[in-house]
Each structure stands twice: as structure tokens, then as C-alpha cells.
Amino acid sequence: MNAPSSKPRVIKDFDKLDVEIQEQIKLTYPEGFEDNLIYFTNKEGKRVSALPFETEEKYYLVRMTVEEAQQIIEDDDDYDADGNLKDEIKEEYEEKHADDIDDEDESTGFDIADDEGEDEDED
Fold this sequence. Notes:
With 123 residues, this protein is of the alpha+beta class. Helix content is 24%, strand content 18%. It has a four-stranded mixed beta sheet with strand order 1-4-3-2, with no helix packed on it. The C terminus is likely disordered.
């Protein structure tokens, strides 16, 4: 895997991401988010968590706690009662984002502590 240093890093809340990015994240994490959160210390010295996600252009760290990760899945009609992405939704998103998803790319091995707080593409 290439070092992530060449891509911009974006730290954002899930609900502030474009719908297309949200859909791609769901494809990457079809069984929910909470087991995939990473933890780090931000520049204020607080331990925080985020969901890593990578596209061709950017590395995303989607800010969320375990509780928020659970609530997002619980409230999302794309997921079933067991917290899994519904098959028909998965197929729809796979077709829609076939050129955008890199199945091998679930890297969490990059140092983001010094970049915490950088938000790009704020609405």
C-alpha cells in the first residue's frame, strides 16, 4: 500500500459528507462502523475516534464515537435490524459506485494526529 502522505486528509462528521461518499462508506463497511473505528489523541490531548475511509483522491476520517456509530446504523433504512447493509441496497450502491470503490483499501495505518482539525470541503 502506498503511503497516504500524497493525498489530502479530510476530517468530517458523517452527516456532513456528500451522499455519494456516505454510500461508498456503507459499501466499505457493510456490517456497520463501530468495529472499524480508530482511536488517536488530537492536538488538544483528547482521545478521539473516527472511521477511516479512502477514495482515489482523499483520505477521510469520519468523526464518530461508538455510540454515534451504532445510532447511525440503527437510524439508517439501508441497514437491516442486525446492522448489516441490505443486499438490495448493497447491489444498488455497488452498481452505482463500481468505478469509485477499491475493495482492498481499508487502511488505518497513517498518522493523523497532526492533521486533526483540518476540515476540507466544509459546506
